[in-house]
Amino acid sequence: MIAGYLLYSQRGSLPAAHRTSIGGAVVLVGIGLAALAAGIAWRSSVSVNDDHALMATAFVSFVAAGGYLFQGSRWMAAAAFPVSFLIFMIPLPDAARVLARNGFQTRLRRGRRPVLQHRWDDARAPRHGVRTARNSGLR
Q: CA within 20 to 30 Å of 15's CA: 21, 33, 67, 74, which one?
């Protein structure tokens, strides 16, 4: 929906000359066909989330390939930002979610806090050698 709105709002500034770009279309159709074939072949052995990720990847690839085929590479270069929003339709596969969760849990088990929390604590810590419960380790 966001991609459609951005394309609609920029329709006056996008190039009007339509010249087909076969190269970009062939590459994206190849990616889409590979994702579609993998989704069909592995449907019984992958999770529902992985199947949705493969089908969404195929869909987004086919839509972008249609842009190259019908509008051309100059138009797609001008519409790269709105078209890139379509990537957010693709859910993370289970392996990526497990990897992120395990990495975060491992970091917590080792006693490390996330990087942003370290920066926040450093910004709140008193300066000039003042010892408080917060920076003395007495928690």
A: 33
Average pLDDT, the chain: 81
Q: Within this chain, do residues 113 and 50 fall inside the same structural domain, yes or no? A: no
Would you say 114 and 107 are in contact if contact means Cβ atoms under 8 Å apart?
yes
**Helix and strand totals (H; E) in the chain:** 7, 0
Residues making up the chain, counted from first to last: 139
Residues 85 and 138 in one domain: no
Q: Determine whether 101 is exposed, middle or buried from the number of CB atoms within 10 Å of its CB (0-12, 13-18, 19+).
A: exposed
Residues 106 and 82 in one domain: no
Measured between alpha carbons, how far is 28 from 121 in angstroms, rounded to an integer?
46
Number of domains in the chain: 2
pLDDT tens for 88-107 read: 999 988 888 887 777 777 76
Contacts of 4 by beta carbon, 8 Å cutoff, 6+ apart: none
